[in-house]
Amino acid sequence: MGPGMGMGMQMRPEMRQQLILAPRMIQSMEILQLPIMALQERIQQELQENPVLELAESKDEMAPDDVVSEFSDDPVESNDPVKELVIDTASNGEEDFDRLEKINQDWLDHFNEEHRPSSNRIDEEGDKRHDFEQNMPSRPQSLQDYLSEQLSFLDYAPDVERLMRHVISNISDIGWLGRLDESNHFHPMPLEELAATYDLPVTPEQVLHALHLVQKLDPPGAGARDMAECLLLQVSSETPHAEVVRVLIQNHLDDITHNRLPLIQKKTGFDLHTITEAIEALKHLNPRPGSQFIAENIPYVVPDIVVERTEAGDYSVRLLDDWVPNIYISKRYIDLYKDRGSDPKAREYLKRKIQAAQWLMESIEQRRNTLEKVTKAIIKHQYKFLDQGPEHIEPLKMQQIADLVGVHVTTVSRAVDDKWVQTPRGIFPLKRFFGGGTHTASGEDVAWETIKNKLLEIIGNEDKSEPLSDEDLVNRLSEAGYPVARRTVTKYRKMLKIQSSRQRKVWAEN
């Protein structure tokens, strides 16, 4: 046998195993990455598509240790990894089905066709779900709905009102006339395009007339075609220094952005005090009048995990998976598959469906175990965060948690992705506990978040008539024991949406 043939024989079984494992591993990773509500939707979808899956009406009785995980004094060891999913193809799946019966025997005992939970348990579950549904936020009214609703209270000719509704339908969620692309960039809509997309012949002038009527509706600024028009629509006789504000909007928005007040004073002839007060009035205008109607502005998350302080002063971790549908594999279909007298094609179909259901259930269980172990490891590292507040966060990388739990770093990344944890300090994304850091002058580790908080403190206490440059900030941080590079200061200043020293300067009359 030649060396080439030997190598080929060695490679073929390995490649075949990878192809068999791939779909299962992909599903396991997908399930791990899903937040709680997306997992609920995924299970509901699987229940509809896989006939062997059944929905339990209540959970099987579980040991308290399976529900609440108390921290022990033992560290999380990397030799106790999260269970890996494997499949034995040599036995054609027979051992998997035997294992399935053992794993799910409790389910089958409690949730077969003859068993039903007590009415009290059903009532309890129903009450919980009702409470949950009542706490879900209702969909807020859209800006377009709000504008259209106002037309029913006004007396416009039918053809004018119909054209106004067409204009309203082309107002973006931020309130400007046009559309937002996937990157949230605004694209204005010309009057000619509005006229061309209307289902009746109209001129751009007629569209402009309808637009002007729409711009008189509430909220002020809706239907604007750019920033200046949006702000001008909001200026009224009640606006302080209204005429000065209009001049600033029309000619000096860029100068205001760069805090070039002496230049504005020179060009307009207004005194610095009036300019300052007019800018303050301008700041009370809303450049995005539709923002109050955007659903994303209402933060609402469902935590996957709750971390609670125990009487001993420690922390416990509990998964909040009460609303995940409880599923099991029907014993009837398992028996049909085991019946050697059944149609071979039907048995092969059942085998695929039962195996898919088994993989789903194990992926869900693996998700639960992984999320629990990863959260425990994170919390053990971030005690100061929970005890003293977010400003005391410790530098932490995902690789550190991966090493502690005994999984690949990508598993940790998927486990924490889009997951939220409820703690005594508030609700945080699980990723919030990660972050790099640097060393203090004395060699101690310090998180970047601590440096950012110190940066905010220094800028908050600076003399606004002579604000600190980024180089000055580097020196102040170094004096406080945090030696960092200038580019780092600039980066975090921008991340914190802090303006440059020139933009922060408060001008006064000479």
Q: Which spans have pLDDT < 50 for at least 5 consecutive residues?
A: 1-9, 13-21, 59-81, 83-97, 99-122, 128-137
Strand content: 5-15%
Strand order in the largest sheet = 2-6-5-8-9
Q: What is the distance, rounded to the nearest whole angstrom, between the alpha carbons of the first and last residues?
A: 96 Å
**Largest sheet data:** 5 strands, mixed
Number of strands: 11
- How many individual helices? 24
Task: Summarize model confidence as the mean pLDDT.
Answer: 79
Based on CA atoms alone, the radius of gyration comes out at 31 Å
Summing up helix and strand content along with how strands pair, one would put the structural category as: alpha+beta
Helix content: 40-55%
Shape assignment: flat
What is the gist of this entry?
By secondary structure, the chain is of the alpha+beta class. The chain is built from 24 helices and 11 strands.
Folded structure, characterized:
The chain is α+β, with helices and mostly antiparallel strands and 510 residues long. It is built from 24 helices and eleven strands. The strands form four sheets. The chain has a five-stranded mixed β-sheet. Helix 8 crosses helix 10. It is flat and about 95 Å long.
